[in-house]
Amino acid sequence: MKIIAGLSNAITKDEIESYIRAGADEFFVGYIPYEWLSQYGWEICNRRSSPNDNYSSIDELADIVEIVHSKGKKILLCLNEHEYSLKQINLLMKILKNINTVPFDAYIVSNLSLMLQLRKSGFNNTINLSIGAGCNNISSILFYKKNISNIGRVILPRWLTIEEIENIAKECNDHEIKLEVFGAAGPCIFNDEYCFSWHSAETGPFCASKVFKHKNVNPILTDKDWKKEIKNDILADYLQKKLKLNNILSKDQQIRLKSSKEEIEKYKTNKEILVRDFWLRRNLIRCGLCALNKFKEWGIEAVKIPFRGTNISLLDKLEVIKLVNNIIIKNNATLEFCQSLVGSPIFCSGDHCYYNYPPGKEIKL
After folding, report:
1. Residue 163 and residue 221: Cα distance in Å, rounded?
2. Is-cis flag, bond preceding 358, omega within 30?
3. Residue 27 · residue 19 · CB < 8 Å
């Protein structure tokens, strides 16, 4: 299983080598030149809206690609905004023609119209389907495979359950389709592919705003068990359902944490664990490491760590990559092994679990 890491525009050759030594196999970057900036600023291009998240010079872009290739690794270009106007797509075609000599190994794309225009304009580069493409099941994946040539990997949405990922992986193996999953960092609080709220460098994204974090809003939108409920009654009244889900979430949390409450209180007095827990919450944020062994078994090719656009230090990024790599290279990494590497029973109590793994079981401390 490969580790894919995002890069900012401040990365150096020595830092690239550090990433590779830590275990990174592939990289991805963003590019926003003056032609785009003069019309649209940093907004609406590749889901990262800060200047530090993207390259703006062809020479710098070519240099980073050359450095990565000189190390025998691959590098991809993000073109993964959810929606583009026709005018924006035409501008992107012009921009891509200007950097056509920069040998990216693939493009990461969300928007179907952009994919079609890439092929129509003669760009035959490999396309990795971003989570924004909405590949929630095997039918959607086969749709893209049928209509878009040279699909590389399909990046699965972050809200899928372990069971759903297993089913999709088995189907994709039958069709020789490669998959990629997320392994760390904060997931989209909404469903990525259907999120059309603002991602602004000026004001910050909506999901980080005070409105969203209101105590009456956040628990409803962040509940992970909504699928189980709507399967039973998909026509239920919307407001009634929200209230019910909120109550279920509260009860579920109480049940899940009840048996470990005393142990958690005990660990809160341990300074070393508290320091580790703080580091994990800041740098790992959410963790899907316990699921990596299963992903390997199911033939999933890559795990992504989306460092592009974060203010995490280089040393902390390297530690996260090493943490992921230690689990990948371990044969039959058990739940206990993964949690011992994470090193914080508080962090592993359930609240920071990416895929709620193992399904249907309480995570032991």
Report:
1. 21
2. yes
3. yes
Each residue's pLDDT tens digit, 81-118: 888 899 999 999 999 999 999 999 999 999 999 999 99
Cα distances from 9 to residues 46, 65, 321, in angstroms, run 14, 12, 19
Euclidean distance between CA atoms 179 and 119, whole angstroms: 22
What does residue 48 show for φ and ψ, rounded to 5 degrees?
Answer: -130, 120
Q: Which residues pair with 111 in a beta bridge?
A: none
The DSSP annotation for 268-336 comes to TT-HHHHHHHHHHHHHT-SB-GGGHHHHHHTT--EEEE--TT----HHHHHHHHHHHHHHHSSTT--HH
pLDDT at residue 347 in the model? 82
Contact 187, 158 (CB under 8 A): yes
Rg (CA), the chain: 21
Domains of the chain as residue ranges with CATH: 2-204+260-349 (3.20.20.60)
For 93, residues 6+ apart whose C-beta sits below 8 A from its C-beta are: 117, 118, 121
Strands 127-129 and 26-29: unpaired
Q: Which amino acid belongs to residue 185?
A: A
Write down the pLDDT at residue 330. Answer: 93
How many other β-carbons are positioned within 10 Å of the β-carbon of residue 202?
10
Q: Report residue 66: phi and psi, to 5°.
A: -65, -40
Site of tokens 């960092």: 185
Q: Do residues 335 and 358 make contact, with C-beta atoms less than 8 angstroms apart?
A: yes
Entry pTM? 0.81
Tokens of 224: 């992970």
Q: Do the Cβ atoms of 144 and 114 come closer than 8 Å? A: no
pLDDT, averaged in runs of 10, over the chain (365 residues):
91 92 95 88 71 86 96 95 91 95 96 95 95 93 95 91 92 96 77 69 62 50 49 45 47 44 60 80 84 94 85 87 94 88 80 62 39
| pLDDT for position 235 | 40
The helix (H) or strand (E) run that includes residue 219 is: helix 218-222
Which of 32, 72, 29, 85 is closest to 56 using CA atoms?
32
Lookup: tokens for 83: 């929606």
Checking phi first, is residue 350 left (phi over 0); if not, alpha (psi -120 to 50) or beta? left
